[in-house]
Amino acid sequence: MSDTLLIRNxxxxxxxxxxxLVRDGRIAAIGAGANGGDTSCDAGGRLMIPGLVEAHxxxxxxxxxxxxxxxxxxxxxxxxxxxxxxxRREFGxxxxxxxxxxxxxxxxxGTTHIRSxxxxxxxxxxxxxxxxxxxxxxxxDVIDVEIVAFAQSGLLxxxxxLELVDQAxxxxxxxxxxxxxxxxxxxxxxxxxxxxxxxxxxxxxxxxHLHERGEMGAFSMDxxxxxxxxxxxxxxxxxxxxxCLGMPDVDHARRLIDELAKERVALVTTAPASSPAxxxxxxxxxxxxxxxxxDGVRDSWNPYGMGDMLERATLVGLRNxxxxxxxxxxxxxxxxxxxxxxxxxxxxGVAVGCKADxxxxxxxTVCEAIVxxxxxxxxxxxxxxxxRHGELTQPIA
Amino acid sequence: MSDTLLIRNxxxxxxxxxxxLVRDGRIAAIGAGANGGDTSCDAGGRLMIPGLVEAHxxxxxxxxxxxxxxxxxxxxxxxxxxxxxxxRREFGxxxxxxxxxxxxxxxxxGTTHIRSxxxxxxxxxxxxxxxxxxxxxxxxDVIDVEIVAFAQSGLLxxxxxLELVDQAxxxxxxxxxxxxxxxxxxxxxxxxxxxxxxxxxxxxxxxxHLHERGEMGAFSMDxxxxxxxxxxxxxxxxxxxxxCLGMPDVDHARRLIDELAKERVALVTTAPASSPAxxxxxxxxxxxxxxxxxDGVRDSWNPYGMGDMLERATLVGLRNxxxxxxxxxxxxxxxxxxxxxxxxxxxxGVAVGCKADxxxxxxxTVCEAIVxxxxxxxxxxxxxxxxRHGELTQPIA
Lengths: 397, 397
Hints:
Two copies of one chain form a homodimer. Chain A is α/β, with parallel strands linked by helices. Chain A has two domains: about 5-50 and about 350-385, Urease, subunit C, domain 1 (Roll); about 50-340, Alpha-Beta Barrel (TIM Barrel). Chain A contains twelve helices and 16 strands. Chain A has helices spanning about 75-90, 95-110, 125-140, 160-170, 190-200, 215-230, 250-260, 280-285, 310-320, 325-335, 335-340, 365-370; strands spanning about 5-10, 20-25, 25-30, 40-50, 50-55, 110-120, 145-150, 175-180, 205-210, 235-240, 265-270, 290, 360, 380, 385-390, 390. Chain A has an eight-stranded mixed sheet with strand order 3-2-1-4-13-14-15-16, with helices on one face. An eight-stranded parallel sheet of chain A has the order 5-6-7-8-9-10-11-12. In chain A, helix 5 links the parallel strand 8 and strand 9 (about 205-210). The interface of A and B includes residues 72, 321, 323 and 328 of A.
C-alpha cells in the first residue's frame, strides 16, 4: 500500500479547485501542481470537507443490519430504559458485532471520529465496553472511537453500577458518563459527586446526558457548574442534549449559557425537532463549543437514523432555522470542527499538517452538499481511502 | 404501449407478497396468481405504497437545476417576499421551465399528485399561472397538479392583485389562495372577505397560508371559522402551516382544534422543526384531516429540500416524536391518504378499483422505507411506469 496519495482537482470547503498531497497520514501540501504521490486520483472538482465527527452516539446497541424491529417503547424515559434492557436479551444484541456494523455505515457516510456512550449496568456488566473495545481494536485503521462509560439504567439506583463504571474507566474508557441526576438517579448530589469523583480519580473528562427539561434541568446544570468551579474542571465537561436551554424562561436560559461559556462547558446536540433544545447560534455567539450527534441509530430508543452526520447537519439547519449560506455552514461546523473540539482531536481539519481524515463529495457548494447529502462519498482516513464513491474499499465489521 | 401491467411479488403496505394487476389505469386485481398483463415485472418482494401526495409546494419558483444560489433573505416574512420578487427578475425564473424541472424530481421520488400555490402579483401578473398551466398540460401523463391562485406579495396591499387572482380563477386555477390576513395584508376582514368572495364566485375551495403565530394567528383562524359557518363552506377550506396551533396557550389551541374539526377545516403542515406547529396526533384524534407538504424547494424562501415526500414523512415523524411503528405509519399517512383527502382525489389508494398511482420500493416494513428513503423507487402513474429503480423512464421537463 502506498504511503502517499495525490488528489487532483478537488475543492477544499467548496473553494477553488486545487491538488492535495497526502503523505504518512497527513496533509503534506495543498496547491495546484502539488506532486509526489505514488497514487493519484482526480476528484473531478468535487468538494473536500474534513471527516465528519459523530460526537454522541450509542454504537453498542444499534439493530443495524438485524432487520426491522417493531418499536414498542412507551413515551417515558424509563419505558425506553426498561424496554432496551429487555430487547438486548431477547434480540441478542452483541456489542462487538453491532458496533462494527454501525461503524461500517458511519465510515461509508464520511465519519472519521466517533464518541460513543456505551451501556454499563448490573445485567450486562462490562460486556458492552468489552465489545466496543474489541471492535475499535479491530477497526482502528478506519475509525477513531472514544468510549464514554455510561450508566444508562442509572448509576446509584441500581447498586453495583458505580463500581462497574469505575472498572470501565480502569479498563481504558476515555470519558466518564452521567445521566439525568434528578430524573433517573433521584439523587442529584449523589450522582454528580460520584461521576465527578471518577473523573478526578482517572483524570478524564465528563459527558453528561441531560434530558431534564425546564427548571429541573437548570437545577442539575447549576449543580454541574458548581462542581466544575470547585474542582477546576473548566474545559473538561460536556453536556449532551441540554434540553433545559430551550426552556420557556429565556432569561434563565441566557444566564445558564453565560455560565456554561465561562466554565468552558461544551454541549452536544442532536437538534431534536420535537424537544426544546439549545439554540446553536446563541451558544456559538456566547463562545460555547456545540457539537452534533446522531444519538441512538435504529435502536430501542430511536427507530430513525442513517448514521449520517451530513443528515445531522441538515437537521441542525432545519431545527435552528438556518437558511442563509453562512448559517448552513455553521450547521456543518457543528458536525465537524465543533465535534473535534469536544473530542480534543489534535491536528483536525483541511490544512497542511492536519491528519488526512476527510471526505470528497459532489456539490457546487458546501450548502448544496448539506441539502443533497449525496451517497457518492469518498472517505480518507489516516491518509488511506476507506470508502470510494459511497462503497467501502474493504469490508468492515 | 401496453394497457395492462402485472406486478408480481409485491407487498402492498408491507403486507404479504402478492400480485397486482393494473388495467386501463386502475388496479384491476390484487392476489397471488392474478394474471392477464401484457407486461409483467417482478417486484422482488418490495413494498408497494400509494403515490405520494405533495399537498403544499410552490412549483413556479424553485431554482431546481439552476445551480446553487446563495441564500440572502433576512429572517422576516417581508424580507423573503421582497427578496423573492427581486430574485425572480435577476435569476430569470421561468415558471414553466422550473415547475417542470421540480416535477421531474418529484415524480422520480414517487409523488403522483401535487397541490401547488402559484404566485400572482402586480409584477409577474399571471405569467406564473400560465407557466404552470403549460407545464401541467405538457406533463399530464405523469403528474396531477392542482393550482392555487396565490397572492404571495399580498392581496390588498398591492392594488390590482385581487383582480389578477380573479382572472386566474377564471382561467382555471382550482383553489383560491390566502395569506396571513393580519400580518401581510394588514386588513384581516378585507382579506378574508375578498378570498371567500372569490371562492363563492367560482364555487372553488380555499387554501390559506397562515404563518401568523400565537394569538394573532388564532384571531385570523377565528375569522376564517366565522366565514365558513356563515357561508356553509364546511369541508372546503384548508389552512396551511397553522403555526398558531402550536401556541403556548394549549387550552386555546385545543378549542381551535375542536372548532376546526367541527367545520371540517383541513390542515397542511411541513412539520417545521424551528416553528410552533399543529401536533399531528392531536389533530387526527380530533378528526381533522392533516396533510403534508414540502413548501418551497430550493427557492428564495427555502434552500432545503429534495422534493421527496418520503423525507417529509421522516420530518413529520421527527417533529411529532413518532417512534412506535403505528405512529410512523401515520407520518406516511399524512403524506399519502391525508393529502388525497385535502385534494379530494377520487379512487385513491392501493385497492381494487383505485387509480393505479403507486410506488414500489425496498424496505422490510413501511417504517423502514420512511427511515431509509431509498432512491430505488419504481413509480406507476395512471397505470404506466414513469420511473424505474429511481430513474425516469422518459425525460420530463
